[in-house]
Amino acid sequence: MNPTRKNVAPDLLLRAAAEAQLAKAPQTDGRAATELLHDLQVHQIELEMQNEELRRTQHALEESRDRYVDLYEFAPLGYLTLSLDGLIQELNLRALTLLGMQRKKLQRRFFTQLVVPKDQSRWAEFLLRLKKIDGTGSLELSLQRGDGTVFQALLEGEKRPVGNGAAQIRLALSDISERKVAEEAQRIASTAFESQQGMFITDANKVILRVNKAFTEITGYTAEEALGQTPSLLKSGRQDSAFYTTMWVRISVTGNWQGEIWNRHKNGTVYPEHLSISAVKNDAGLLTHYVGTFSDLSSYKAAEEQINDLAYTDLLTGLANRRKLIIRLQQAITAGEDQQHSCALMMLDLDNFKNLNDSLGHEQGDAVLQGFAKRLSAAARDGDTVARLGADEFAVLLDPLSPDPQQALRQVESLASKMLAALEPPYQLAGSTISCSASIGITFFGEQHEEPLEPLKRAELAMYQAKSAGRNTLRFFEPQMQAAVDARVLLEEALHEAIQKQQFTLYYQAQVSDSEGIVGVEALVRWFDPKRGMISPAEFIPLAEETGLILPIGAWVLEAACQQLALWASQPAMAQLSIAVNVSARQFRESNFVEQVLATLQRTLANPQRLKLELTESVLVANAEEVIVKMNALKAVGIGFAIDDFGTGYSSLSYLKRLPLERLKIDQGFVRNILTDADDAAISRAVIAMATSMGLGVIAEGVETEAQREFLASLGCHTYQGYLFNRPLPPEKFEALAQRLGRGAAAP
Ligand code: C2E
Ligand code: MG
Ligand code: MG
Fold first, then answer.
1. DSSP 8-state assignment for residue 431
2. Nearest ligand to residue 612 Cα
3. For 432-447, how does the pLDDT look when each residue is reduced to its tens digit (9 = 90+)?
4. Are residues 473 and 449 both part of a single domain?
């Protein structure tokens, strides 16, 4: 259609009419013709103006149509027009590109031919729905391109009327393959993130951004609790800071770390986990996140332990087996070497077990072994390893022991004796009572390197010695230890006898004041053994304390000292002297100690004012309130208290202030070198200053020379005890000395 031609036609007709009029009557009506021509010219100008306007409109229309075509053809979406039965009628360039086919190939084809077979029924349904509901709708499906490749497409369809009751389907088509791939990846990532493993994602500063459900299950912390925290929230404290430093250094260098680590659950329990941490970097290589993945190894560890337990357990008794003992020995040897301390190994063998087993049958034999194992475990300390090595052979690894060799020996001996005692009573088995003692061999190890089998061999040898020594006894492999133990055993036996036979006496040593001469004495116990002669209290008092024999000995000493006080009361030269009695911690702790002292005073009629008790600082460390109550009760009747060996313990000043004390006794250990050792002098000076500030008296013991006495006096201590004045003497000799000097007289 050409609009120009259609508008020119009336114009030409008008001009022809005017010219015809002019030709008809040129002379009759000249004026009218001229007017007509004028009108015609005006009309022609108007017509030209209209034409111009029309051309401009035409041009605008063409431009707009071109723009529309451009928009349509080059739109970012593909557009297709389909007939209601799905025949492609028209499509834009983008649709052609997406489908990878030429226009002529596509036009007049059914759209369903582009749909992959599995999606064709969905397409058919979609088309049907669009037709029926006269609405819009969308569908995701796979389409096949001209080259056979498939892409994920999104169709947005609409039914549009086109007049005369007819209608078309318009489709917008877009390729969503990439989005689908991304969605898929996201879905996979989400599924993976919600796996059985605990996961957390942090930012570059290790602040937790996201955790999964397994994280909460394993750690006990909900997402709300964990977000914003750092993974150190889970620290158990079992790894030191060096461990974490190494871990993060490794992550920063290699990008990841994995290993086993102990973490703490929110409820406080510590559990093992396998942890893997990876650093995430962006395209520019900058660290943006860390991803941590971990799994709880508790159940795995428990299973592992169970397996280990079975491999390292003696099935009959439930004790450790030989293999486990050897591992423990190895560990103890290594630790002993590092820390310079010794451990002990005991080997125990049931006496005459073979006969018993043969005569009673294996079932009874097993019952005896189980009973033995139970008693042995009960007698051992927590932490000691009790093992059954096979048949009727058992072992106990004692670790740790005191770092002091003598104390360690005593510890081991007393444990072994306790075990022998526990194993001695007969076993009550079905229908019979069976006695079965054991022999124990003991050796020390750990101070130097050796193979674990070495101590085992030594303990075994010692065990055979115990057997040949008559069974139901113990033997040390090390001869000097055995000798020490033998001597101790003999001493203990002799001490028992000494108590029965009253082999003790008291010796007295003067306590001398600068101004008053002899003011009192210290009673020091002496033991005369008919076979050994005089035995020093330094030797037998510790043993007596350990065995409890100090109680009868202490009671005897107190009684004897009070009798002496009562006797001296009638002798003018001696009547003013007080007697200081040493009281051991164990004695003082006896619940009836106060009653015992009061009863002794009553029995002997001694003057309580003249009785002084010397306590060591070890008495004070136990139950403070009880100590104070006891001391006050005795002080109430006039008894005075001194702290013996002062300066060797750790009594606090505030505590000492609460005690009803009369004086402090500077330990002879400080006096000995007071002239040559600046530390000893300083300590003595401090003790004297302390006593003075607390309003207490002070006495120095072990004063042997005049120079020591003078020095002490210069520090402010004016009462002394020591060989300078007299060695401890039996009462008659001491009386002679005192009578010669008299109270108020300085000793020679
Ligand atoms: P201790 O109570 O500190 O007694 C002082 C010790 O020093 C006494 O030793 C005494 O003989 C000694 N000694 C005194 N002057 C000198 C001196 O100038 N130089 C030297 N080197 N030593 C001196 P002893 O009699 O051997 O007593 C030792 C420890 O045994 C006593 O130390 C005391 O702790 C304890 N002890 C003695 N008798 C008894 C007692 O009857 N009961 C209790 N529980 N322990 C006692
Ligand atoms: Mg003393
Ligand atoms: Mg002392």
1. T
2. 2
3. 888 888 999 999 998 8
4. yes
